[in-house]
Amino acid sequence: MELTPRKKAVLAAIIKSYIETGEPVGSKILTGLIENAPSSATLRNEMSELCGLGLLSQPHTSAGRIPTSSGLNLYVNSLMGKNELPAGAKEYIDKRFEEISCNPEEIPLKAGKIISDLTGLPAVTCYMPQKAVTIKRIELMAISRHSAVILLILSDGRTRNRIFRFSPGFDNSKLHSFRKICDEKIKGLPVSGLNKPYIQTLLASAGINSLDILPLVSSVFEMAESIDERTVELSGETNLYNICGDEENARRIISLVGHKESFISIYKNIGKQAAVIFGNETGYTELKNATMVASGFGKDEYSGVISVIGPHRISYEQILPSIEYVASKLETAMNEALKDMED
User: Fold this and answer.
1) Domain range spanning residue 325?
2) What's the pLDDT at 33?
């Protein structure tokens, strides 16, 4: 059924009022919300028909109407005008991004913290490399006569480090063997390829020095093993408990976020234009009463999504442009950080 202009006006007015007050909207209230409003009887008929279409519901027989997720979906995608992000919000976001370090691994999580602080909602950031992450470089930097830092640098800019203490008798020949293995056998290798059978092959090729460099090679392996190529990070966990109002439900959502592949699948159709995902459409019962506002970021080498999780009653007009702007700033920061790593 095609909605008439009047039905659209009624639906939009009810949703705006419900988001603002959290209260069901009756015909008497509605007459003061719509310009040139018809009679209360006519409005009640329109509201009844919108209920029949599944766009509104009536909590109690004598109560007014509230929007359903279908009604909110229609409002967000068809009836709501696109608002510009206020200058003050842009300045706040810009300033916060200036404080972010150039470490590519930290940027998505820090961006999540920014949007969480701005909206008062928990944020989830997903990061997915679009090609295999490889080992770019391994550095061994002395910090004393008997110890050094092993630095592992990946092709996507992430790093890992570990302090290593040399055993007595560890001389330059053994150090040379380790560096040669790193340069010839590990550098350029996909992270997933640095597995135990491969490590055993490397040590066999080291000959008489294999036992001496085993701790060094094992450290590189352990650092690589700790790296997840696809990450899902939750920011503003306290905000999640606040919006759920139920500790058990908050924990279920946190557990779902921990199953990263499941959570990433929710965002499969998200592009760089901010969009709304209603939890009851995801198939996950943990999210049935939740709404997510999400925007994508990325380029050829990587992709990602940043989102907030909230109830149905959120200020869509403010949050949609906010999340889209943060996503664009996040992409710029990531691109600059990755470029710095290449240089």
Assistant:
1) 87-131+230-342
2) 87
